[in-house]
Amino acid sequence: MTAPRKPGESPGTPPLGGVLKGLFRRFVPPTLELHDIQALILRPRPAPYYGTHAFVEIMDAAGGREAMRRLRTRVTSAADWREARSAWTAVALSYRGLEALGAPASALASFPRAFREGMAARADKLRDHGPNDPSRWQAPFGTGRVHLMVSVYADSEEAWRDELAGYEEQFATLTGLRVLLRQDFGAQPESRNAFGFKDGFTQPVVEGSGVEGWPGDGRPIKAGEFILGYKAEGGHALGAPTPEVLGRNGTYLVFRKYHSHVDAFNRYLHQGADTPEGREFLAAKLVGRWRSGAPLELAPEHDDVGLGADDSRNNDFRYRDDPKGLRTPVGSHIRRMNPRDTELKVLSDVNIRRIIRRSTTYGEPLGDSLRDDGKPRGLDFIAISARAIDTVEFLQSEWINSGNFIGRGTEKDPLLGVQDENAFFTVPGTPPRRISGIETFNTLDGGEYFFMPSLTALDWLAGL
Ligand code: HEM
C-alpha cells in the first residue's frame, strides 16, 4: 500500500519522512472558498481506493433538476474533506447535460467552443485517429447522450459499498434519468495501475488551497489555473461561464477511458531485453520511474523501493543535470508530460500546462503474461483544471504524438502515442539504443469534456 500522499489524505500513521518534513512545514491558511469547491478537485486520491464512475443521460429536465438537488446533498466540499466520511461524490456535466437541464441560452453560449463541441468532435485537435478514432469508441461515449458523470471515491471497500447503497435508496424512485454505463474501479494490489506501476505521485500545488506540496512538487501555482474566479498565472482570472453563480468555483474535467494492452507492453520489454532485470530497466526508461515509483533521476541504475514509498523524497528532482536524458530519457512518459526544467526546443510555459490528475485504474492485473486474456483493464484518465480542455488538446498534439519539442522528431510518448509500424523508442546513452516494435500500449475507448460546477452552481442548476 502506498503511504498517504498529503496531510489528512487517509487515516493511518504518516510515513516517517512525512513526519520529519511536517516539522519543517509552514502552515498555509487556505484563501479559496473551499466550502463551495468540490472536494475531488483538491482532495488527493487515497491509497488504496475504490469507487464507481456512472455516466448518466438526463431524459427530462425536471428529473435532471431533481437529481441535482439530491446530488447536492451528497457532494463533499473541499472544506469538509479532512473530517468527512471516507467516501465522497463528485459531479460533472457535459454541454449536452447543461442543455438537457434547460440552462438558459446565454449561459450555454458563455462556455468555450471546445467544451460545447465535445471531445469526439475535437478528434483532429486531439489526434484521436486510428485505434483511438471516435468511430471505434465504446458506447455511450461520443454519442451526445452522456450528460452527467457521477463519481464515488472511497478509501475502503466497505465505505464504497455503503455509499452506493445510499444512492440506490435515494435515487431508486427518481424518474427521468438513465445510467448508461457504470464503471467500477479500484487500484490493483499495492495501488498499482494496469502496468504494475504505482501512480498519482506528481500533482501541482494550488495556491490558497491549504494543501501543501512535498519537496519537488514545485512552487504553488495560482489558483485561477485550476479553479474559475481566481487570478491565474497571467495575473487575471480566466474567462468563466456566466452568470457568475454558475462559473465561480467551478472548473473543467477531461475524462478519457484507456484500454491498456499489457501483453503488448510485456512483449516489447522482451524484445528489448533478455533478462528480467533488463526488462525492468527498460520499463522504467519508458515511464521515467521504476514500478515502485522511485524516479530514475534519483535511482538511475536500480529500483529503490524505500525511495518510491517516501513522499518526502520521491518527487524531489529536476532534469537540469541530465540534459541528454542519460538517467531519465527525454522521451519518457513523465518527462514529456511534465518537463520540469528541461530545456525545450519549442518554448512553452510549463506552469500553465499542469493538471490535477485524479485517474483511476480498473480491471484485474495481467502480470507479466505475453498473451492477452481478453479481460478489460486500463485507466480512467481524469484531468482537472480551469484550462483542462486546452491543456489536454495541447499535450495530445504537441507532447504526446510528436517529439519536436524535445528534438525527437516523430518519436511519440511511449505509453500514449498512437504508434505506426516503424515506431521506436530511444534510450539515450553512448551509443543511444533505438528499440523498434513499440505498439500503441493504451487505446482510447472513449471520453468526454465536462464542467465541474461549484456547490452553489449545483443549487442554481437544481432551481432552473
Ligand atoms: C493509460 C494511460 C496512462 C498511464 C498508464 C499513465 C501512467 C503514468 C505513470 C506510471 C506515471 C508516473 C507516476 C505518477 O506520478 O503518476 C505518470 C505520470 C504522469 N502522467 Fe500519465 N499515464 C497515462 C495517461 C496520461 C495522460 C493521458 C496524461 C496527460 C494528458 C498523463 C500525464 C501524466 C503526468 C502530468 C504525470 C506526472 C509527471 C511527473 O512526474 O512530473 N498521463 N503516468
TrEMBL record:
This is Dyp-type peroxidase family. GO terms for molecular function: peroxidase activity. Belongs to the DyP-type peroxidase family. The keyword Repeat does not apply. It comes from the Bacteria. It comes from Arthrobacter bambusae. Signal peptide: none annotated. Residues 301-325 have a biased composition (Basic and acidic residues). Its cofactor is heme b. Keywords: Iron, Metal-binding, Oxidoreductase, Peroxidase. Residues 301-330 are annotated as: Disordered. Transmembrane segments: none annotated. PROSITE patterns: DYP_PEROXIDASE. Residues 52-171 form the DyP dimeric alpha+beta barrel domain.
